[in-house]
Every structure is written in C-alpha cells, then in structure tokens.
Automatic annotation (TrEMBL):
One of its GO terms (cellular component) is plasma membrane. The keyword Iron does not apply. It is a multi-pass membrane protein. The keyword Transferase does not apply. This is MFS transporter. Coiled coil: none annotated. The chain crosses the membrane at residues 7-26, 38-60, 72-90, 96-116, 137-158, 170-190, 226-249, 261-279, 291-309, 315-337, 349-368, 380-399. It is found in: Cell membrane. One of its GO terms (molecular function) is transmembrane transporter activity. It comes from the Bacteria. InterPro entries: Atg22-like (IPR024671), ATG22/LtaA_families (IPR050495), MFS_dom (IPR020846), MFS_trans_sf (IPR036259).
Amino acid sequence: MLYDWANSAYSIIITTAVFPLFYKAAATDAGVSAANSTAYLGYTIGIATFILAILSPILGTIADYEGFKKRFFRFFFVLGIASTAALALVPPDQWLLLLIVYTLSAIGFAGSNVFYDAFLVDVTPEHRMNRVSARGFGMGYIGSTIPFIVSIIIILLAQKGILPLSAATASRIAFLITAVWWGVFTLPLLRNVRQVYYLEKIPNTVAASFQRLGTTLKDIRRYRTLFLFLLAYFFYIDGVGTVITMSTAYGSDLGISSTNLLIILFVTQVVAAPFAVLYGKLAEKFTGKTMLYAGIIIYMAVCVYAYFLKTTLDFWILAMMVASSQGGIQALSRSYYAKLVPKEKANEFFGFYNIFGKFASILGPVLVGVTAQLTGRSNLGVFSLVILFLIGIVVLKLVPETEAPSQTAQRLPLDR
C-alpha cells in the first residue's frame, strides 16, 4: 500500500499540475506556439500510452514465471524515478528533450503499476482484497498531497520573490521532491514483498511466454467472465478518466480562476482518501460489484449535474461528488479483477487490464470534444459521457454475480 502512497506524487505533480505548466513555459520561451506545444504534449502522452499498451501483456506473461515479477517492477520503478529526477536537469531551452525524458518517466510510472497491481494476489487473501486495494488508493490520495503542498508552496514563494529562486528552478525542485518521495516510500515493497504465485521456470522462457500469450488470445472465448469485465471496465473507466483529466479545462470554460482550480484539485484529493477506504469496507458488506454499480451511478449523476453547472459553488459540489467515488471505483475494479484472474498468471492478465485502461483514455475525450464542437456547448460534451457509463453498467450486469476465483483458474488453460 505504501507504493500507492509513493507513486501518487508523480500523478499529481508530473502528470497533472507542475510539469505541464513547466513544459508549456519552456516551449513558449523557445518560440513554439501554444497550439503546437499542446499538440506535442498530446502526441507524447499518446506515444507513451501506446508503448505501454503493447509491452504490458508481453512483459506480464514473462513475469508470471518465478522471480520475474520483482525484476520487471524494479526496472520500471528505477526508470521512472531516474527520469523524473532527470527532468530537473534538462536545459530550459530544450523543450523536445524535456518531452523525451517525460516519456521515459511516464513509461516507468505506468509500467511499474502493471506489476504493482498484479502483486495484489501475492500480498493478501481474496476476502481482504477489496479492503487492501481501497486502502492503497486512499493512502495514495493522502500521500500525493504532501509533496504537492510542499512543491506548490516553493513555487508560489518563488513567484512572489520571497524565495531567491526563479519559477523554473522551483518547478525543478518539485521534480526532485517527486523522485525522492517516490523512491523512499517504495523501499518497503522492494524489501518485503515477494512473488507467491508463479509458474515454474522452464527453458526458453521468452519463447514460451509468447506461445502462452498467443494461446490466451486464441482461446479468448474461454475467458468469458474476464473478457466481459474488461469490456465493462473499458467503458466506465474511460468515463472516469475523462472526467478527471478534463475537469480543469471545463472549470476554465466556466471562468473559474487557476488558483481556485488548484485549491479544488487539492481538496478533492483529500476528500477522496476516506471515501476510497469506505468503498473497500462497504464492498465487504455489499460485494465489490454492488459498489461498482454505486460508483458508476454517482458518475452518471456527475455528468447530469455538469450540464446545469454555472457557478464556482456548483463546481465545488461537482468536485466533491467526483471525490466520493473516484478512488473507490478504481480500487474495487483492481480488486474485483484480481479475484477473477488465475493467480499464477496474474501478470499476464493485468497486462490486458492495463491495455484496456490505457486505450480507454481515448474514446471519452473524443466524445466530449466532438459533442462540444457540434453543439458549441462544453456542458453537453460532459453530459455525453453518460453514454459510456450506461454501456459500462449494462455490460457489467452480464458479468456473473458470484464465481469463485479458484474455479475460474481451474477452467483457464495453463501451459501446453
């Protein structure tokens, strides 16, 4: 769970808040237009997403063999913190190099998460998975706020001239804080977590892994439960991700100041923490699937409420609605899936989970953009996301209510 605490600093400082502003300033100083710099950042995110989506099931299949999961996790973790720290060393006029280093950090961050998520089957029995996964997300929200607050204070004090630093230097310090925070709080996982479920090592591991992956894809019909859940996950998590990533832009369209948006972002992180834990506890009482239904319905209400949004107070209410379910729906998706997969092949299947999660980040933003352009109204763009949640909840309904993971594992074909 401390790894959620550790790497969530990257999510808010590098992905969401500080790095995009730092990069935009560097690109502008280098003479790159605002439109082009935004497009280049979008291309960069797309490239990193595509690379991880392709690599995840391949590396995950190899990592199912004894001893490989920790190695792959360590490689991506080191790549992530090293390149995050390296962002502080890129000269201010080298905006293209900045994007290259950012790509490496994003691959390290997302790649390590594939194996971290798969470790869920190794660290807790099935009846505690919902609670452990939810607590991890809750710790992540709290953990991300501490380095974020420190970084923002340094940047604001530098901007006001209280600290003898330029805004660019203050941002670089934020990158170093992120790398150090991420590295230090990952040590418990590196020292204490072990791969419990695995396949025995065999000769020609890589070739055998590709053969297993091919068998999985060829016999996809045997994985009906898993496939249906991933299909449902693809749609509803796309809606969740789109609300998160586009909320700031939507707030700006309403005339909400950047300062207020940062404050709302911070409070959302804080409020999301206890609600993520609450989802885990309620899942033990009402089942994880029931709580997933609850989270999806709340997000549908968010999209409807967004249609009528007019004031800053309305946006605060919307943000708190998101905070109430944001962590819970992600945490329970992870634990619900972990219960379905055969434990000795968890890495391979979490590789597919990563693919569906990554490519799910495409449809929602496009739907919002097209709807907003055709109608000329941003609120209708957000409202259109109801479609994704409706599809997600309908497909989730098709997933069997109860199925013992051990039975699922017995039905799935292993090595041949």
